[in-house]
Amino acid sequence: MKYSFSLAAFAAFVAANPTPTLDKKDGTLSVAACASAVTIAPGSNPFASRTLHANSAYASEIAAAMANVTDATIQAQGAEVAKVGTFLWIDTIARVPLVTTMMQETPCTDIVGIVIYDLPGRDCAAKASNGELKTGELAKYKSDYIDPIVTAIKAAPNVAVALIIEPDSLPNLVTNANLTTCSSSASDYQNGVAYALKNLNLPNVAMYIDAGHGGWLGWDANLQPGADMLTKVYKAAGSPKQVFGVSTNVAGWNAFSASPGEFAGASDAKYNKCQDEKRYINAISPLIKKDGMPAHAIMDTGRNAVQGLRQAWGDWCNVNGAGFGVRPTSTTGDPLFDAFVWVKPGGESDGTSDPTADRYDSFCGKPDAFSPAPQAGQWNEAYFEMLLKNAVPQFT
Ligand code: BGC
């Protein structure tokens, strides 16, 4: 189990966080939920008047880790990280009940961020995050994963929700269709994402479909096919009005704006004009919009404080030397960006560095990847402390 909800850790979190309070009588969490149903108007910025929720799952994970730390500075900084709004990944059917927990604990001031991440044949171009559902298990994805999430959100119409839909899935279909694992997953991915978009299209929900990052779909040859793939699935879902645009740099390392771009000196740089996320979104957004889909963006800045660490754009696993980036905010300086958000919970691994382990991917053994590292999603204390040390801005 990735998240342990030890009472001590949870109590420590609640003590450190003034918003939720424990109801003394039955031990349940009571928060000031909105008094009436929330409507996130299409075309509005869902983050403009709301704070990304600092969820109790990440907070208790941090609290459990800090309980083993003796350095008081790290403990104090860790407690500060626990207060930063971060998305919660629902990466297995077993974790679906956490959606209800999130709906119960999110106050009216906040918007809760949830990552939908359990497609059949997940992570088709890599091994580290291969999921529980096999290619062909689309019916199970719909009935056992998406449907109960829809039920949980429908049961709490007074809570604002931001959803990131299936990181990496559609980008993989654009650039990795040559792999059997991706070509055989293609119809499940497209039908699964369309089903999620159609059924999660609720008034209190803002959805962002994952669009990879500038070092992936930002290449000249990938921009139009990338936009085509996104809009095709959006239309297959019936153009749901609660789709606000795309997510970018999820679990990634790219800068929002960098000059010169991080790989501007590379021999193939002339083929990628999207050397940062600002340029990427400004390039792909008009192509998406032209085809009728809203194309605002949210960007993961959770681990992008330090640039120049990777040997190549595509190095995605536990990049060594990384630091926590800009805290979630709707002040982005670019009208296409609704918000900078934290999506990948810093400290959770991207994949194991053990070559003998199940789900080992060679990217996690590259020279620019931090080692040792546990399985994807598992806590890596040394990595968390490195992110703290290299954070910009620092935690005090
Ligand atoms: C893992 C998930 C995990 C998520 C957030 C992904 O790479 O596959 O299991 O929940 O990262 O850490």
From TrEMBL:
Provide the leader sequence positions. Answer: 1-16
Write the Enzyme Commission number(s) for this entry. Answer: 3.2.1.-
The positions annotated for binding substrate are 89, 91, 213, 216, 316, 344, 348
Highest taxon in the source lineage: Eukaryota
Q: Which UniProt keywords are present, listed alphabetically?
A: Carbohydrate metabolism, Cellulose degradation, Glycosidase, Hydrolase, Polysaccharide degradation, Signal
Pfam families for the chain = Glyco_hydro_6
Q: Does the keyword Signal apply?
A: yes
One of its GO biological process terms is: cellulose catabolic process
Q: Return the SUPFAM superfamilies for the record.
A: Glycosyl hydrolases family 6, cellulases
Active site location: 123, 168, 350
Example GO molecular function term?
A: hydrolase activity, hydrolyzing O-glycosyl compounds
Similarity-based family: Belongs to the glycosyl hydrolase family 6.
| Name of the protein this chain belongs to | Glucanase
Species this chain originates from:
Hyaloscypha variabilis (strain UAMH 11265 / GT02V1 / F)
